[in-house]
Automatic annotation (TrEMBL):
GO terms for biological process: regulation of DNA-templated transcription. GO terms for cellular component: membrane. Keywords: Coiled coil, Kinase, Transferase, Two-component regulatory system. This is Two-component sensor histidine kinase. SMART domains: GAF, HATPase_c, PAC, PAS. Residues 265-317, 392-440 form the PAC domain. The keyword Transmembrane helix does not apply. The lineage of its organism: Bacteria, Bacillati, Cyanobacteriota, Cyanophyceae, Leptolyngbyales. Residues 188-242, 441-511 form the PAS domain. Residues 573-761 form the Histidine kinase domain. One of its GO terms (molecular function) is protein dimerization activity.
Length: 761
């Protein structure tokens, strides 16, 4: 049997522990008056002396009465600064910090008030703790009421027994004068039955064989039976389970009760309802004797304690969970005396940290003052706790039992009232070593980066500059410190920013390295860069640029020399051939009518000169690649072409996209692909009147594809006269020349799509 005082003390100790309070008080409403029934502080034994609220000097009476009126929970993070209560004498005297005052309600009626305080820290009673506390109080309320009800029922059973004895004596007296007492007897029996029927307890009578002779209405309702379904049947057939959920066999106990009811005035156990539910009941048992002193019936009064049991079990589970967490925590948990550091409590992890086999080797024996490498660190921590009430994430070097030094991370709070420090400690030696190694690595990396002569920077997927290393001092204008955090569109003109952003997005999409070339004007001169763009973690890329201006200048000089050479060669071959043709044509005209044979000779010579000139022309054309391709790869040449057309065609929107990792095709293939794309773009703008054109390059592993698609007026592919289809014919001839497949799809009013596909060799 759990007494109210025992339950109250257990409840308050659990509440103070879970809520993080220093002390607290439980106030219950008794006969319409608030009575302080328990005052508890930390691990000290609770004071269970009952006091009227007005006579209690250890609680703020004004706060209690405020919650009594509002019936709402009051939480103050710092009571001494709260205007509503800062002038309260109790709060001013005790300098109360964290304060919680919670009404205890049952069916919306106030039955008590819980008061908690913590004078060391502000903001202790957080929302999470309040939610757990409300749940705990809700369950505790049920236990309190059940216990109070049980005590009242125990008194009631005692009173009932006394009344039964008095009535039995009265009945014996009334037998002497039956006629005079008959009416009184019937009235007494009626009152007795009315008392049994209206009681809020199960009242049941059964014979020594366990057959049920009587059960009141409350018992029928609680157990779920109809009266005819339970009367006459035994306890074992109805409400006694074969085995309790805990595994206890209760039948031997009940059999012994039937034989010797005097030995079992009270008991508690599981009972069965008709629907199979199990409820816990506390029973008070009373034997009823006949004139010969034999037991003829047993009267039992039972109260449902299921909710109380559930609350107690939940509390026990919570306590066990807390103890398990304490014992098995991966951080050291401790309590030490303030003055000399004597260890008052510790878990296994704390013992492990200092090289002990168990906490028992330390508790009450060891002093932590001998395990600080620098005792001044401990004193500084105590000073912080005296000022703030606690210290968080405090790092200090500690020494193990064998002298090994390690780094500890502390979080502790000070309880000056009970003269102890309580907190946790974790070993962060690995982290400290990692920090030192990281600092050394960063220093080494920065030293390495500073030795790189070329500018290097990091961009994210939106083109924002994350980090930049200048490299060559001449590039300082490009990578100033204030440029960090800015996007490409703030650093470059729109065209180049779009181009750079497309490179970044392609690298992030394909997760492959991309090499591109571009130029910038720096300090009044054009500088060419070759950039290697590589993906890294967190959707970022490293952009490493190298100055290739000297190479570009050398290439330009070489190209100029080659053009001059080609011009001389054309002058010496094609020009001479065409000059000879013109001279022979003039000579042929003079002799055409006079000498047919001479005319034929001139014509044959003209034909030979023309054939020689054509051969030289074709050779020169192959030698002279398009100028756009001289400045880079096919993808760069097409991009520049799109950029040029975009600038000239203001009413047309052009999109350019490269899919896959770009690779180089043969010179002839790239030259013809460029001309095909150029012709398709020209047709889309001049003939199709398109306002949107998409150019797409697809680099697959074995095949390359160029697509040009517009939304112009379209045409019937087979309906173009040969005299007007030289552009389409030229594209077809170029595709055939490089072994490519050309597909043109178009319908009037539905736009045009040109697709050229060539195998990668």
């Amino acid at each position: 049997m759990i007494h109210l005082e025992q339950l109250t003390a257990t409840l308050m100790q659990g509440v103070i522990e879970y809520a993080g309070a220093e002390r607290g008080a439980l106030i219950l409403l008794e006969e319409d008056q608030l009575i302080v029934v328990a005052q508890c502080s930390g691990n000290r034994q609770c004071d269970l002396e009952k006091l009227a609220v007005a006579d209690c000097a250890t609680i703020p009476v004004s706060v209690i009465h405020s919650v009594e009126r509002t019936q709402e929970t009051l939480v103050l993070d710092d009571a001494v600064t709260e205007l509503s209560f800062s002038t309260a004498p109790y709060i001013q005297h005790h300098q109360t910090r964290s304060l919680l005052c919670m009404p205890i309600l049952q069916q919306r009626q106030l039955i008590g008030i819980l008061y908690l305080e913590n004078n060391l820290s502000t903001g202790v009673f957080t929302r999470d703790r309040l939610q757990i506390l409300e749940l705990l109080i809700a369950q505790a309320t049920i236990s309190l009421e059940n216990t109070r009800r049980y005590e009242r029922l125990a008194n009631y059973a005692e009173t009932l027994e006394r009344k039964l004895e008095e009535q039995t004596q009265a009945l014996q007296q009334e037998i002497i004068d039956r006629e005079r007492t008959e009416d009184a007897l019937r009235q007494s029996e009626a009152n007795y039955r009315n008392l049994l029927q209206t009681a809020n307890s199960v009242i049941i009578r059964y014979d020594p064989q366990g057959r049920i002779r009587y059960i009141n209405d409350y018992g029928i309702k609680l157990l779920g039976y109809e009266e005819h379904q339970i009367l006459g049947r035994t306890l074992f057939e109805t409400i006694i389970p074969d085995i309790e959920i805990s595994g206890r066999d209760v039948k031997p106990f009940v059999h012994d009760l039937l034989r010797n009811p005097k030995s079992y005035p009270q008991g508690e156990g599981e009972n069965l309802c008709r629907d199979g539910r199990r409820i816990w009941m506390v029973w008070s048992n009373q034997a009823i004797f006949n004139d010969q002193g034999d037991v003829v019936e047993i009267l039992s009064v039972g109260n449902d304690t299921t909710q109380r049991r559930q609350a107690e079990e939940a509390l026990q589970r919570s306590e066990a969970k807390f103890r398990n967490i304490f014992a098995n925590s991966q951080v050291g948990i401790y309590r030490t005396r303030i003055g000399d550091g004597l260890i008052l409590d510790a878990n296994q992890r704390f013992a492990d940290l200092f090289g002990f086999d168990s906490p028992q080797e330390m508790i009450g024996i060891e002093h932590t003052t001998g395990y600080w490498v620098n005792l001044r660190d401990r004193q500084q921590g105590i000073e912080v706790m005296k000022r703030d009430g606690e210290v968080r994430s405090y790092e200090a070097q500690m020494r193990k039992r064998d002298g090994t030094v390690f780094w500890g991370l502390f979080s502790s709070y000070l309880n000056t009232g009970d003269d102890y420090i309580e907190g946790v400690i974790a070993d962060i030696s690995d982290r400290k070593q990692a920090e030192v190694a990281l600092q050394a690595s960063e220093a080494e990396l920065r030293s390495l980066f500073s030795a790189i002569p070329d500018p290097m920077c990091i961009f994210n997927g939106e083109g924002q500059l994350i980090c930049a290393i200048k490299g060559n001092p001449s590039y300082g204008e490009l990578y100033r410190e204030e440029y960090i955090g800015k996007t490409l569109h703030r650093l470059y003109d729109r065209e180049q920013a779009d181009e750079f952003l497309s490179y970044i997005q392609q690298v992030l999409r394909t997760q492959q390295v991309l090499t591109v070339e571009y130029s910038q004007w720096i300090a009044g001169r054009e500088i060419w860069f070759s950039a290697r763009i590589s993906p890294i973690r967190h959707e970022q890329v490293i952009w490493l640029a190298r100055d290739i201006t000297p190479q570009k200048q050398a290439e330009a000089t070489s190209i100029l020399e080659e053009r001059n050479r080609m011009a001389r060669e054309i002058h010496d071959t094609l020009a001479q051939s065409f000059t000879g043709i013109l001279a022979q044509v003039g000579a042929a005209n003079q002799v055409l009518t006079d000498d047919v044979e001479a005319t034929q000779a001139h014509l044959d010579l003209i034909k030979e000169l023309a054939r020689t000139g054509l051969t030289e022309a074709r050779r020169s054309v192959v030698a002279l690649r398009p100028q756009l391709l001289e400045e880079g790869s096919l993808q760069n040449a097409l991009h520049r072409l799109v950029t040029q057309i975009r600038a000239a065609a203001n009413d047309t929107t052009l999109y350019y996209e490269v899919k896959g990792t770009a690779y180089t095709l043969s010179t002839e293939v790239e030259s013809n692909l460029l001309r095909i794309g150029q012709e398709a773009l020209t047709n889309a703008i001049k003939h199709a009147n398109a306002d949107e054109i998409r150019v797409e390059l697809v680099y697959d592993r074995d095949q390359f594809c160029l697509r040009v698609k517009d939304n112009g007026q379209g045409f019937g592919v087979g309906s173009i006269p040969s005299s007007k289809g030289f552009g389409l014919l030229g594209m077809s001839e170029r595709a055939e020349r490089i072994g490519a497949q050309l597909t043109i799809r178009s319908q009037p009013g539905q736009g045009t799509q040109m697709i050229v596909t060539v195998n990668r060799e």
